[in-house]
Amino acid sequence: MSQDPDATLRHQINELVEEEHRLERAHVGKALDGDEKSRLDALGVELDRLWDLLRQREARRSAGLPVDDAEERSAKVVEGYQQ
What we know:
3 helices, mainly alpha, 83 residues, elongated, 65% helix
């Protein structure tokens, strides 16, 4: 069985998603305070950056290019895709 070359990246994504879900579940029916809202926003940005990196790696792999040349892009770049 071959090792998933993106296992660490997928693990990071899963950890952040779990934290995001815990924070959301802890506040069902009530508002987040400022620090919690900031953390939730930061989690969303970091998840976007990691998903972007994973997609880059998958695209490079499919194209026969070096996967390790993929780089994590800044929040400004990744969040700009949504505009």
